[in-house]
Design goal:
Blueprint (H helix, E strand, L loop, with lengths): L10 H14 L3 E6 L2 E6 L16 H13 L12 E3 L4 E4 L15 E2 L4 E7 L2 E6 L4 E6 L5 E3 L4 E5 L1
Amino acid sequence: MTEPTTMQVDTALVRELAELLDATKLTEIEVSDGDRKIRVARKAAAVQGFAPASAAAAPAAASAPAAAAAAPATEDWKAHPGLVRSPIVGTAYLTPDPTSPPFVAVGKTVKEGDTLLIVEAMKVMNPIVAPRAGTVVRICIVNEQPVEYDEPLVIIE
């Protein structure tokens, strides 16, 4: 009878992977070496789906009540037909670079194919484009927020 083998865990590698999770703001990472697999995961912190008030410009604040009225009810927005979801896991950026204005804002009209935001995954910037023309009624994330696959990003009506 063969003796059961115990897996030798490389604790230094596990620590390195945990530090990589913190540095990249991801929720899990998995590596494999032959038959051995190591997966390190953590629970994502709950994140509010609203942009901070300081991000809104003064002229946009005047149109905010109208845009808020046009937004679907809280319980209905996740099923909205104009909801754009993240196709990948990564970090969402609402601006092309730190000194530029956001790609879109609530109340802005977009055309099909316009860039709504960027999701960075593994050092690759992936533009998320409008699947249809319409008006942006809700931005469900904040700049530099980690996003999961299928997470709500923007609603277009």
